[in-house]
Design goal:
This protein is of the alpha/beta class and about 425 residues long. It is built from 17 helices and 16 strands. Helix 7 packs parallel to helix 11. It is globular. The two termini are about 40 Å apart. It comes from Teichococcus aestuarii.
């Protein structure tokens, strides 16, 4: 599983680094910049694109890069890359069109902007490593189909919990077990948190209060577990997942699930609050061979029927270069939908909402996201969380009610709505 480091060393020795372009210059993007610039021989972050170009400059400067070129044309970007100068721009199409770049990274978390740059990347046949679970959880199956048709890879990333779960899922399958739960370990879950309650934590770590709130109110974990479900073929056994509060060791979770239910559903995604060691992820799996069950017991995994595997950390930006290397050098995607969507995230009222109000951003004051099966969501015309921002309410909505398309007016002219409509046509529900 470590072949990519050998391949990167070879690229470094040849003087042919894997050249990367990145969208975004926020908290996570700054970490990625520092990681590639200072810790990944054989890889070069050639250009950062951000709507606020000075934030892109700052990301490079924090990493110790001082020779920075502002580029506004294809020729200027090509010249900067040829000279070995770091480039910054506000024009995303420059990255998508550049023949020198082998892979792009979406580190924005912005759904509309992310949909635009991802479509441009696909149209220009550029691999895309996406940290944008919100986009993936809304139209990922469609984007994967389009990327396949273009002969490139659109994939989630190592480091974030979905990629860590997928790596462990693949490992567990590779040694002959059948995964039945892919789970995420959280320290906090409160759907009514908002940017005001999370402001102090956000300031402490230099993060955006809305992004921090999306972690606390369950929106982020819902998107993360939705894309894991779509990548594994698993589902949820109820709206919002089970989400136990469990303060013991993660191994104890093997006793808390109904194995027959798990098998009947083909496996589920879930989360727990407070399990140790955390924050990490877990995969629970079965093995039908009594001989192998004997060995698993000998190796201290217990008597079954569920066996516990876990990773006690997720290292986010540290692992993004690994994702890029896997895609470019190994043609190996980290996390992709198998086919059509299995699970998605639906918008739920965080408080009593009034007719005429415009829904604010994810991790805001008005809505939180919950996992639901794609089949139920389509049948009940539930409003995907990824489409909620900017919608205007037609009627009053009670706290904790799930919004439907009939409850809102969708703003005109958004690419994400066009893509979502295309995905719904491509994957109809009987």
């Amino acid at each position: 599983m470590m072949i990519y480091d050998t391949l990167l060393k070879a690229r470094a020795a040849e003087g042919k680094p894997v050249r990367v372009g990145m969208f975004g210059a926020g908290f996570m993007a700054k970490g990625i910049t520092n990681q590639i610039v200072n810790s990944v021989p054989g890889m070069e972050l050639a250009v950062i694109c951000n709507r606020n170009i000075e934030r892109a400059r700052q990301a490079f400067e924090i990493a110790g890069v001082t020779d920075i070129a502002v580029v506004e044309t294809d020729a200027a970007l090509a010249e900067a890359i040829a000279q070995g100068r770091a480039a910054i721009t506000s024009d995303p199409l420059l990255l998508c069109r550049s023949p020198a770049l082998e892979c792009l990274v979406d580190a924005t978390g912005a759904i509309e902007y992310g949909s635009m740059v991802t479509m441009a990347a696909i149209e220009n046949r550029k691999h895309m490593v996406s940290m944008n679970a919100e986009l993936d959880g809304t139209v990922g199956p469609l984007l994967k189909k389009k990327a396949d048709a273009a002969g490139i890879i659109f994939t989630g990333a190592d480091g974030d919990q979905p990629g860590v779960q997928m790596n462990l899922f693949r490992f567990v399958k590779s040694i002959g077990l059948t995964p039945l739960v892919c789970g995420n370990i959280k320290g906090l879950q409160d759907p009514y948190r908002n940017p005001t309650t999370q402001e102090g934590f956000a300031k402490q770590w230099g993060q955006d209060p809305y992004m921090v709130t999306s972690f606390a109110d369950g929106t982020k974990i819902s998107f993360e577990q939705a894309i894991v479900a779509n990548a594994t073929g698993m589902t949820v056994n109820q709206r919002g997942m089970i989400g136990r509060d469990h303060r013991g060791h993660v191994d104890e979770l093997t006793q808390l699930y109904d194995v027959d239910m798990l098998k009947e559903k083909g496996g589920i995604v879930d989360y727990v609050v407070g399990s140790k060691p955390g924050p990490g992820i877990y995969v629970l799996a079965t093995h039908d061979d009594p001989k192998q069950q004997h060995y698993l017991n000998l190796y201290k995994l217990g008597t079954g029927p569920l066996y516990s595997f876990y990773t006690p950390y997720h290292l986010c930006h540290f692992e993004i270069p690994i994702s890029v290397a896997r895609v470019v050098l190994c043609n190996d995607a980290v996390l992709q939908p198998i086919d059509g969507p299995r699970v998605e995230v639906v918008a739920t009222a965080k408080k009593d909402l009034k007719a005429g109000e415009e829904i604010d951003a994810l991790g805001g004051y008005m809505t939180y996201g919950q996992c639901e099966t794609y089949e139920i969501s389509r049948r009940e015309t539930l409003l995907p969380m990824g489409l909620a921002q900017g919608c205007r309410l037609k009627r009053d909505i009670a706290k904790d009610a799930v919004l439907t398309y009939d409850d809102v007016e969708i703003p005109p002219g958004r690419l994400i709505d066009t893509l979502r409509a295309e995905q719904d046509r491509l994957f109809p529900v009987a």
